[in-house]
Design a protein that fits this description.
The protein has 742 residues and is an alpha+beta fold. The chain has a domain at 361-532: Beta-lactamase (3-Layer(aba) Sandwich), CATH 3.40.710. 37% of the residues lie in helices and 18% in strands. Strands 2, 3, 4, 5, 10, 18 and 19 form a seven-stranded mixed β-sheet that branches. Strand 21 and strand 22 (638-645) form a beta hairpin. The chain is elongated and about 150 Å long. The protein starts with a helix and ends in a 7-residue tail after the last strand.
Length: 742
């Protein structure tokens, strides 16, 4: 049996050997295998080289990122200076008590005991401090900390040094708590020019989330410009933030500084504002409002603008009511912010000079006269000035019903004859075809007003400027279409809420609604005559009026107003000017401009502003200007005075508005007189200022007005603003341009 199985085994072994031999690779197979192995080995080597050499920095940064935190180091914000180099807004330091978030959280009770002791020292509620240490998030209500947990969390600002010293000397009682100096914006003149200068507030989490580029510039608690110059020139003032990369262990504790790049301070913004003139305007407006109220007027706001007519630069710009800029320190609560915008408080956050829209009254007649002169009405002709005229079944009267007989347009400006301009507006309206014009009407009055820059923003380098309003036929139709539905409903249902207290007024409103519902789109004769004297639906800003009068003064050039004049670096090595920008030319001939300048020069001498400028040395500096008294339905009349000086060689345009302040000649012109007195150093009019006891609410320093026998130094030497920028020395001190030092 064993012999019989042996051949079979031998056969199987032979078969296996034959199969094995068949599986052995030949020389080609061996070569392919070797190449494949070598290729895989080379690929591995290349991959290892790639990861360790070209990608070394990348993986190193990833490794470091898991053990580091990068903080943004804000730069020192640049100052805002006046044209001479006097600081208007600068930085001051204050003591801030802060907490180290991770050190606080590492304590057994999360820092409660420390915060309770701190609350007692600071005399603040424990709950307030506890809430301020919370990190902000979607489900965390404010107050909370919006910044990085690796930054000190601010718990209390502007801390008394004695209190801060207690905390620092008793460190064992206040672990994780520190006191340090932080920069805070300071307005050197208090509330003066506060709307023009603007304010700062923290950048919001929503802004950081919506704008990726902001995350490389802000920490989430940094201050940014929100209004005024702080907003308009925020980037230049802010400078360049630095970076500090901190080493962090697994517990979140900082182990050291890995890398740091320093911040670059912001540029100083040099403005065209003159601090002395700004104070003069602020104080003159405050006295003017006080005087108006003493006369029984409900004066509720005021604005003043001083512009260099040759460049469009703003020398001073003020608005009342104003507010204390310190409300922004440490953040502002919603109630206080709402108060700044409330009508009851007079909306002090709003600049009346740039954002206030008012009927210009008779100051607008310069545009109407130019429209007439450029459309065929002779400047040499005589025109009737009756006490009233009837247009469209309505009587339109002169102020206080005065009549001046026959006069030329020069005299019509001097005595401010309304009926002459009513007639011009009515005739030009009829020339266009009246209520149903044929073809395309010229609307010459509206076209000229637009040419004067009214009805559109001036382009000033401040945010939130309003355009005013120049109504015409097209505007009237758009206005009607927008309000027709409501007017028709009122025409049917009336004004029951008004009828409860005043049935007569409710009936008037209902009839007006009925008329508007039917054909409120029509440009009526009454619209045209009211337009001619700056009434009806015409609205302008004090800034627009100042620019228009500056253009009359300088020969017809409309400038884009500018407050910013240039930049100077903190070390004085870099300077950059902000050049004036020409916006256009008045569509008026030189002859008409000469005529206007001549008429305006006589207004303070023998016209409606004569009383205000009685005794002013017009032989030294002649004033050209126009009074205006404007009314709005349901409101008291507002006082205007628009002017420029010297009339024979103009340099400054000055515009004053007192809302609901009375007549222009009696209330606004005296304020302008005060401003010119201060600019040129003339003694004030003896009855132009109220007693000292009435001047307590004037902003700025104590009133520098002196008796008539004591000469005053002019606010602007020689009556010419400096052309050069101030100089910043390497040590940071600022030197005024030559001839303008205090």
């Amino acid at each position: 049996m064993r012999g019989m199985r042996s051949p079979q085994r031998r056969h199987r072994r032979a078969a296996r050997a034959e199969a094995a031999a068949a599986r052995r690779p030949g020389r080609t197979g061996l070569l392919v295998t070797q190449v494949l192995v070598l290729t895989l080995f080379a690929t591995l080597l290349v991959r290892m080289w790639y990861l360790q050499v070209p990608m070394a920095d990348h993986f190193r940064s990833l490794a470091e990122a898991s053990h580091t935190q990068t903080l943004i180091v804000p730069a020192t914000r640049g100052q805002i200076l006046d044209a001479v180099g006097r600081p208007l807004v600068r930085n001051r330091t204050e003591l801030v008590v802060s907490a180290d978030y991770h050190a606080l959280m590492a304590q057994d009770d999360g820092g409660d005991a420390v915060l309770r002791r701190l609350a007692g020292v600071l005399d603040r509620p424990f709950e307030e401090l506890r809430q301020r240490t919370r990190l902000c998030g979607p489900d965390v209500p404010r107050p909370c900390w919006p910044g990085s947990p690796y930054q000190p969390i601010s718990l209390a600002e502007d801390v008394d040094p004695k209190v801060a010293l207690q905390i620092m000397e008793r460190r064992e009682e206040f672990p994780a708590i520190s006191a340090q100096q932080q920069a805070q914006r300071e307005h050197t003149r208090g509330s003066a020019a506060v709307q023009t200068l603007g304010y700062l507030s923290p950048i919001t989490a929503q802004e950081l989330e919506e704008r990726e580029n902001l995350r490389t510039q802000f920490t989430g608690v940094d201050q940014v410009g929100r209004d005024g110059l702080e907003a308009a020139y925020d980037e230049e003032l802010r400078g360049t933030a630095g970076r500090r990369r901190l080493g962090v262990d697994n517990m979140g504790n900082v182990t050291g500084v890995v890398h740091e790049s320093p911040s670059q301070p912001g540029m100083h913004l040099v403005t065209s504002l003159d601090r002395r003139v700004q104070d003069i305007v602020e104080e003159a407006l405050a006295r003017g409002v006080k005087r108006s109220r003493n006369e029984g007027n409900p004066a509720d706001a005021a604005a003043g603008v001083v512009m260099d007519v040759r460049t469009g630069r703003i020398v001073a710009m003020a608005s009342l009511p104003t507010y204390d800029p310190e409300v922004w320190d440490g953040g502002i609560d919603q109630e206080t912010y709402d108060g700044l915008l409330s009508e009851k408080a007079g909306e002090p956050l709003i600049s009346r000079a740039v954002q206030g829209q008012f009927p210009p009254g008779s100051t607008f007649k310069v545009s109407s006269l130019a429209a007439a002169a450029e459309n065929g009405y002779s400047l040499d002709a005589d025109y009737a000035c009756p006490s009233s005229i009837t247009v469209g079944g309505r009587s339109f009267q002169n102020f206080e019903g005065n009549a001046h007989g026959t006069l030329d347009l020069h005299r019509a400006i001097v005595v401010s004859c309304n009926t002459v301009f009513y007639k011009l507006g009515y005739d030009m309206w009829r020339k266009d075809g009246g209520i149903k014009p044929k073809g395309e009407p010229e609307d010459a009055m509206a076209a000229m007003a637009t040419g004067f820059g009214f009805g559109a923003p001036t382009g000033i380098d401040l945010p939130h400027e309003v355009p005013g309003r120049i109504p015409d036929r097209e505007w009237k139709r758009e206005y009607w279409e927008a309000g027709r539905e409501d007017a028709c409903a009122r025409a049917e249902n009336g004004y029951p809420e008004v009828a409860k207290d005043d049935p007569g007024h409710a009936d008037y409103l209902k009839r007006a609604a009925e008329e508007f519902c039917v054909d409120g789109y029509a440009w009526r004769a009454g619209d045209a005559v009211n337009f001619a004297i700056g009434q009806g639906d015409v609205l302008v800003t004090p800034l627009q009026l100042a620019r228009a009068y500056a253009a009359i003064a300088n020969g017809g050039t409309l400038w884009e107003p500018r407050v910013g004049k240039g930049f100077v670096s903190a070390d004085g090595k870099q300077t950059r000017e902000i050049p004036p920008v020409k916006a256009g030319e008045l569509p008026v001939s030189d002859a008409t401009l000469d005529y206007l300048r001549g008429a305006l020069t006589d207004v303070p001498k023998e016209g409606t502003a004569q009383g205000a400028f009685d005794g002013f040395p017009q032989d030294r500096v002649s004033i050209a200007g126009k009074t205006g008294t404007a009314t709005l339905l349901g409101r008291h009349e507002s006082a205007w005075f628009a002017s420029f000086a010297p009339a024979d060689d103009p340099r400054f345009a000055v515009v004053v508005l007192i809302s609901q302040g009375g007549t222009g000649g009696a209330m606004a012109a005296p304020v302008a007189r005060d401003i010119y007195d201060g600019i040129y150093g003339f003694p004030p009019k003896s009855d132009g200022a109220p007693p000292e006891s009435e001047r307590g609410d004037a902003p700025g320093e104590a009133d520098a007005r002196k008796p008539e026998d004591e000469p005053l130094a002019p606010a602007i030497p020689g009556g010419v603003p400096p052309a050069e920028l101030p100089t910043v020395r390497p040590d940071g001190t600022i030197v005024a341009p030559e001839g303008y030092a205090d």
